[in-house]
Amino acid sequence: DIWVRQRTDLTGKFHNTVDDYFRDLNNRISVQFCDKNNPADPGFHVVLNQKMTYNEVAEVVANCIDSEPNLIQFFKPQSHRDIAGYAIKSHFEGTLKDLFMSYGQRTKSPKKLCYLRLSIAISELESKDHFRCTWLNKHREETVLSLYVAKNVTISELLEEAKKQV
């Protein structure tokens, strides 16, 4: 006979019962996270549950890199090169498993995502347009400005935003 006893005073996010524990054990995957701005970054590995949502993954990564979950943006890796590809929208409604399936990582190859630390919240970033321009001062020195502006911005508002960065 095999007897299994479970303490009733333990509470966990994924396994409140023995069945939940083994379900969680079966759904675990190791994911490597690399800094998008540092190509030489070896990254770090985290064991996650395939049923986690975008926000849950963001919370785990934020704890690892000492940041806020809403100040992180994820990118899928390019399959043919070892660099970050397209950004993953923060309102992605699937699970981590769906994310890897939708981006073609169906094989047993290591799962990898790139992250970027943001200065503004991801929801605010995704609601704005990125505008890059070059500022030439009176000494003919060029400064490249990277502006995030509302989608319906006027030229005068764009110039005001540029003034803040100069």
Characterise the protein shown here.
The chain is an alpha+beta fold. It contains five helices and seven strands; from the N terminus they run H-E-E-H-E-E-H-E-H-E-E-H. It has helices at residues 18-26, 54-65, 96-102, 122-126, 155-165; strands at 28-35, 44-49, 72-77, 84-88, 111-117, 128-136, 142-150. The strands form two sheets. The protein has a five-stranded mixed sheet. It has a two-stranded antiparallel sheet with strand order 6-7. The protein is elongated and about 85 Å long. The model has no long low-confidence stretch (mean pLDDT 81).
Describe the secondary-structure layout.
Elements: H1 18-26, E1 28-35, E2 44-49, H2 54-65, E3 72-77, E4 84-88, H3 96-102, E5 111-117, H4 122-126, E6 128-136, E7 142-150, H5 155-165
